[in-house]
Amino acid sequence: MSDAALLRVKGLFKSFGALMAINDLHLDVEEGELHAVIGPNGAGKSTLVRQLTGEMSADAGRILYRGRDITALAAAKRVRSGIARSYQITSIFPEYTALENVAMAVQTRLTQGAAFLRRAAGDPALESPAGELLDRVGLSAERRSPAFSLAHGQQRQLEVAMALALEPTLLLLDEPMAGMGQQESDMVVDLLSGLRGSMTILLIEHDMDAVFALADRVTVLVYGQAIATGSVEEIRNDPEVRKAYLGDEHDAA
Amino acid sequence: MRQHSLRILAYGLVLVSVLFPFIADAAESGYLVPTASRILIYALAAVSLNLLVGYVGLVSLGHAAYLGVGAYVVGILAFHADAGSTVLGIPGTVQGLLSIPAAVLLSALVALVIGALCLRTSGIFFIMITLAFGQMIFFMMVSLERYGGDDGLFMYAGPNRLGALDLSNEWTFFYVCLTLLAAFLLLCRWLIRSRFGRALGAIRQNEARMTTLGANVYRYKLAIFVIAGAGAGLAGALLANQASYVSPDMLHWTRSGELLFMVILGGSGTLVGPVLGGASFLLLEEYLPVGFGAAGLETLKEHWRIVFGPILILVMLFFRRGIYGLLTGEDRS
Fold first, then answer.
1. Is B133 helix (H, G, I), strand (E, B) or coil?
2. Which of A61, A234, B94, B281 is close enough to A230 for a disulfide, judged by CB 3.0 to 4.6 Å?
3. Number of inter-chain CB pairs under 8 A, A vs B
4. For residue B333, is pLDDT > 70?
5. Which residues on adjacent β-strands are paired with residue A85?
């Protein structure tokens, strides 16, 4: 519990009927770290992300961002205060080109007042940062392709570019490598390690190799509770974690 | 190929429209000019509705309300000009330079209030609540006994003057309608291509994502709802001037349904689609019975809607982009 915590979750609850998806969750994410959240299916990882972005309300508990209580803040306002996310299930604008998708994200960050009436297509203020981001995530060749026509992995890369276009302080990545091939995965791992230090990242991920390669700290979520938080080394050696989670994975592998 | 056929279509439409009164006159069919004006007015209303239906995916079933509000503003101002009285302290007028902007402004205001409430909902609820508000305005007009109630309101002084222009002249009126429709189409084109328009398209494709990109989706929708209401109000003001008569009929929900038909028939989400849809709809409505009559099919002449309905259904089933898609071949994508 250091004072540098950018995001602090205190006693968060969320239930769906009888199912406790998030059950008295405590979590601290410190400024500048890459914090991974791992856990078996149904541990409440995606629910947590949705609560952090404001897409889903909290039954109880508080979410503090930069020391400010944002538990009741609307989703769009949280984005403007610097919290951006990418989706586990691809969420893009299918009819727009890859460039337009990212330009759309740049636009929501930049546009105010009369600028709304400026012509969108070909506007360098939107398209040059968007183009650079596509280069960074490895989609340079797909600028003009409609997003629906991209391969699944490419759509995931596009997702990441859109989240980065918001220039967030806190980036929430919900299983960014899900459905990607090895090559694309490696690219995202490279991208994320390149981002380290420039922004705080909360990474939800199944791919243990990626998590252990990237994370400064790891939190293990089981049945909506954080059962352990620590460095990669600490988590690897935690007997409870091994029992609850890693043991199964390793046996299976 | 597509670009090519589009351009031919656009030039063709512009040419026919601009020359229409001369063509009709040469063919000794000058009586068609008012019909053409009516088509232009409904096209304007359909284009405004298409801003919601086609570009944002907001299916409003209460759009005739703004048409009616626009028409009643012109009608009521003319009524008070005639009676030498005032309404809410405002004297009446038959000067279109005052009454038409007033009609646009008031329908925009009504759209702002109705939109602010309706846009809290989405999907089927949005359709139902716009329908409910539309009918509410309809019954409000019916209950205005002073302005004719059920029977509607005659503008005894005839159509407005527009500056020095006399709108009772059929040719003048036609060209005023054509100019306003063209201006509104250009406005829409500009809006659609702007950052605002791109955001609207994004909302249609994936509203949840727009929210998580930090956009206040509600405000975008409300802005376009008001612009669409203002466009319909303009059409209503013209409609009142054409007939020198306004009635609650203009606001009935079936009228909203017809506007929706025009949009989908012509091609929703395309700029000129609703113009084509409006024209086809009104022409079919007018000439189907005439055609059946000429062919000696008396039963069909009387019950022409039996044929009209299936035609609409077939076009909607097989041409996703309506007549526009049919003409440009864009449909197959």
1. helix
2. A234
3. 83
4. no
5. A172
Task: For strands A225-230 and A217-222, give the pairing.
Answer: antiparallel
Per-residue model confidence (pLDDT) at position B330 = 66
Residue among A103, A109, A118 minimizing CB distance to B214: A109
- Residue of A55, A107, A166 lying closest to B195 (CB–CB): A107
Q: Which of B144, B130, B310 is nearest to B229 (CA)?
A: B130
The pLDDT tens digits of the residues spanning A212-225 come to: 889 999 999 988 88
With beta carbons less than 8 A apart as the criterion, state whether B332 and B8 touch. Answer: no
Measured distance CA(B188)–CA(B51) in Å, rounded: 8
ipTM for this model: 0.86
Which residues contact residue A185 at a Cβ distance below 8 angstroms, ignoring those fewer than 6 apart?
Answer: A177, A207, A210
Interface test with A, best of B187, B196, B212, B218 (most A CBs within 10 A): B212
Q: Cα(B241)–Cα(B99) distance, rounded to whole angstroms?
A: 10
Q: Which residues pair with B103 in a beta bridge?
A: none
Kindly report the backbone phi and psi dihedral angles of residue A183, in degrees, each rounded to the nearest multiple of 5, phi listed first: -65, -45
CA nearest neighbour of B169 among B27, B28, B23, B37: B37
B216 in reach of chain A (CB within 8 A): yes
Q: Which residues contact A249 (CB under 8 A, 6 or more apart)?
A: A208
B219 contacts chain A (CB < 8 A): no
* B267: nearest Cα among B230, B226, B318: B318
Angstrom distance (rounded) from CA A53 to CA A33 = 18
| A43-69 pLDDT, tens digit each | 888 899 999 999 999 999 999 999 899
Q: Which of B188, B192, B195 to mutate to test the interface with A (most CBs of A within 10 A)?
A: B195
Cβ contact A93–B205 (<8 Å): yes
Task: Count CA within 13 A, CB hemisphere, residue A42.
Answer: 4
> Is B48 within 8 Å of B239 (Cβ atoms)?
no
Which amino acid, one-letter code, is at B268?
A: S
Burial class, B220, CB count within 10 angstroms (exposed 0-12 / middle 13-18 / buried 19+): buried
- B203-219 pLDDT tens trace: 999 999 999 898 999 99
Q: Does B190 touch chain A (CB under 8 A)?
A: yes
- Phi and psi angles of residue B72, each rounded to the nearest 5 degrees, phi first: -65, -30
B196 vs A84, A91, A117: nearest CB: A117
- One-letter amino acid of A209: D
Residues 6+ apart with CB under 8 A from B260: B49, B53, B59, B61, B63
If one counts every other C-beta atom within 10 angstroms of the C-beta of residue B17, the result is: 21
Nearest to A35 by CA among A60, A8, A13, A62: A8
